[in-house]
Design a protein that fits this description.
This protein has 13 helices and eight strands. An eight-stranded parallel β-sheet has the order 1-2-3-4-5-6-7-8. It has a single domain, classed as TIM Barrel, CATH 3.20.20.140. The radius of gyration is 18 Å and the shape is globular. The chain is an alpha/beta fold. 49% of the residues lie in helices and 13% in strands. Bound molecules: zinc ion (ZN). The site of zinc ion (ZN) has 6 residues, from loops.
């Protein structure tokens, strides 16, 4: 029997099986660059030796397509349903948080956000009926490229749908010059006041200063990645003392050239272990990165990055740090 696992950090845009994406695209009459399924699979997944040079490249090459295909209520329902069921069947994921940005799935305002979000929750509920062993929740992601007004609309939706299965708020997207984490602080404070879990993509690329600000001022429950802290002992202490759990995505970091080598990945994770920082192991999106939680664990073990005991502790931390409460 496979161990029970929890996935806290995966994006819907990189989590849906290409076979399902192919059928959705055709059902909706979306014009694709090729009429051959194998070209399509190559287009939305990364092969073993493929690398992006940056998050911006990753977003442009892959998410532009997957988000376009997922931009309808019907597509959202099928997508969310498939990821939750698939995670249980493949890796015994009994706790799954899945995140997406509804405003990057509304065809620039053509589709109604309430329909988009409701459909994702329907997909989740259908999966939970089929797999009653699983608990799941949706996180709505804001985006660094959006205006604060746009991101506030996403937060308002997260609050509105909290009773129906939206369990938290996130901010993601490639770094852009004009983005201000400080300007977004009131949004995160409001999310927390309304009982939503708060996680923030920071310390992945960019500067360690932003992550320090997030840790000391915004104080989220969790941080997406946060790997830059490994280079800064004082920040590691702050993360540990604040009780913040880091969501680590090893394969994603390597494939997006955020971490340059297995040795660098090892020294990063050892820094977290040695300083007592809590972290979880995640995929960031199993289909696009051609990974899954079992593969991630096997890789960390094989490369002598973590021991089995350390991996199991990270799994336990994931069950502790989830935003899903007794759903
Ligand atoms: Zn992510």
């Amino acid at each position: 029997m496979m161990k029970k696992r929890a996935e806290l950090h995966s994006h819907l845009g990189s989590s849906v099986d290409p076979v399902i994406m192919w059928t959705i695209a055709h059902q909706q009459g979306i014009k694709l660059p090729s009429k051959d399924y194998w070209d399509f699979e190559e287009m939305i997944t990364m092969s073993a030796d493929e690398r992006n040079t940056s998050l911006e490249e990753m977003d442009r090459k892959y998410f532009e397509w997957t988000e376009r295909i997922q931009s309808s209520p019907e597509a959202l329902e099928v997508s969310v349903h498939s990821v939750i069921g698939g995670g249980y069947r493949k890796c015994n994921i009994v706790l799954q948080e899945l995140r997406f940005n509804p405003m990057r799935r509304n065809r620039s305002g053509e589709r109604d956000l309430d329909h988009i979000i409701s459909a994702s929750l329907r997909g989740m509920d259908r999966a939970l009926l089929e797999y009653p062993q699983v608990k799941a929740g949706i996180l709505l992601s804001m985006d660094r490229r959006f205006s604060i007004e746009q991101n506030e609309i996403i937060l308002d939706k997260a609050i509105r749908y909290a009773k129906d299965g939206v369990v938290g708020i996130d901010i993601a997207g490639p770094h852009v010059k004009d983005f201000s984490m400080e300007a977004h602080a009131p949004l995160f404070a409001r999310a927390r006041d309304r009982g939503l879990g708060v996680t923030i993509h920071t310390g992945e690329e960019g500067s360690v200063d932003e992550m320090r600000y997030v840790v000391t001022t915004i104080k989220p429950n969790r941080i997406g990645h946060g790997i830059l802290a490994a280079q800064d002992p004082s920040l590691l202490e702050l993360v540990r003392d604040a009780g913040i759990t880091l969501e680590i995505c090893p394969t994603s970091n390597l494939k997006n050239s955020i971490i340059k080598s297995v040795d660098e990945l090892r020294s990063t994770l050892r820094a977290f272990v040695d300083s007592g920082v809590k972290f979880t192991i995640n995929t960031d999106g199993p289909e696009m990165y051609q990974s899954n939680l079992a593969d991630e664990e096997a890789f960390l073990l094989k490369e002598n990055i973590l021991t089995q005991e350390e991996i199991d502790r990270a799994t336990a931390w994931a069950f502790d740090a989830t935003f899903i409460a007794g759903r």
